[in-house]
Design brief:
Elements (H helix, E strand, L loop, with lengths): L11 H13 L2 H20 L3 H16 L2 H19 L2 H12 L3 H14 L4 H18 L4 H10 L2 H4 L6 H12 L6 H8 L4 H16 L5 H10 L9 H5 L8 H22 L13 H7 L2 H20 L7 H14 L1 H20 L2 H11 L7 H16 L2 H19 L4 H18 L4 H10 L3 H29 L3 H26 L7
Length: 515
Amino acid sequence: MEPYYAGWLSLVPPVLAIALALVSKEVVSSLLVGIMAGTFIYSMGMGLNPIAGTVGTAFDLMVGSADLYIILFVCMLGGLVFVISMAGGSKAYGKWAATKIKSKRLSLLATAMLGIVIFIDDYFNCLTVGTVMKPLTDKYKVSRAKLAYIIDCTAAPVCIIAPISSWAAAVGSNLEATGYYQNGFEVFLSTIPLNLYALLSIAMIFIIILTGLDYGPMVDAEAMAARGYLGAVKSENEMLSESSDRGTVADMLLPIVLLIFFAITAMLHTGGFFVPGGESYMNLGSAFGSCETSKSLVWGGFGALAAALIMFVPRKLMTFRQFMNGVTEGFKTMIPACCILFLAWTIGSVCRDILQTPEFVSDCLAKASFPIFLLPAIVFVIAAFLSFSTGTAWGTFSILIPIIAPVAYALAPQLLTVSLSATLAGSVFGDNCSPISDTTILSSAGTECNHIDHVTTQLPYAMTVAGCCFVGYITAGLSGSNVILTLSVSFACLIIAIKFLHSYDLRKTPGKAGK
């Protein structure tokens, strides 16, 4: 499909969709409106029939942008969670975990640590951690919004600074494609110390967990959770009411462990780790970098479901018919998330592929004039805006790295590395909090949290981190990329901001903390 350079009009679809979603609290129709607005702009610009062109282009993009492997994996995970609950595994795990982890704070710390450990892929992280930790955090009345926030902030922000991950390979390949670097992986490693959004996001979840200094809509979500309303889209109690009383902790943990094992093994297989003589033979970093993640996740889901069948049916925790019915019901619970994910991919395709939003933003950068020390901060803002509008980190840094590298090299070579760090940091911002980001959607799905509740409670935290990053990148520009000074200023700014916003929230609404 031939692209059309729409200029500032290319910003209309994402801005319209996000604004409607936040105002109406209805994601699907908002995304549809954004998609149709984009394809209408495209049809008018290309001289197509206003009706046939708009609808036909939308359908073509929907078909072409969907990753059916991810859709299938999401559904399979829903089926796995459902049959584990039917077998009594979730109930048994909740009782067991309560004897080991005896406070709300420890349950949140355990969630954050598990999220950091599963750093290989963000999709995998979002869906797996929520599945494992929901029974425990529910017991201590943690709102699903806070659970989704912690999981979301240990997905993309962790993956973007993990040397062995699908993200590391993607960034490395884009760096090598610029022609300025022979070893993209080494350059990627050099960007980690100043990838402020990733580092500050991870720091913030631990600060919030340890101090309880919530603010914004998250305070209300936690207050309602304390009164028994967790904000779950589908009541866990409804699922557990039909569960077996003979389930064990192993019925919960073993299928999840096997899911992880099968998925990682499949990633290594599709990445060529086991192929003698290949480039990735016995090379973990290379194998994870070149693996087919989506397909590998499906193999992992299939293996876990097969293991659950072998575990549950012979022990008569359920019949084969009940198992298959449970898988089907689990698939159904994921349909809303799949619809949102499908439409988010489509509106991202509208912006990237036919209206050329990234090219418009890049042109704005090229035409702008500003003091050199502001380069990292401006790059961060552009990457953050672009990723928030399109909902994709990979798409953002794939487009910006080839632009930022030569610009920074020509204008300020001493700021080249920090500018690349700012590019990656801004890219992760949108992936972390945009309503149309796939990881934001999957975090909602994995925790069974209302998607708009997750977005509205997380956004103030993400904006706080982004503001501190902006200050940090100005510091980096002024100091010539001094890592220690930049990190010190950024972390100090974050702590001050959290304390101030928490205090301001209490003053604005007296007695709010005691709800």
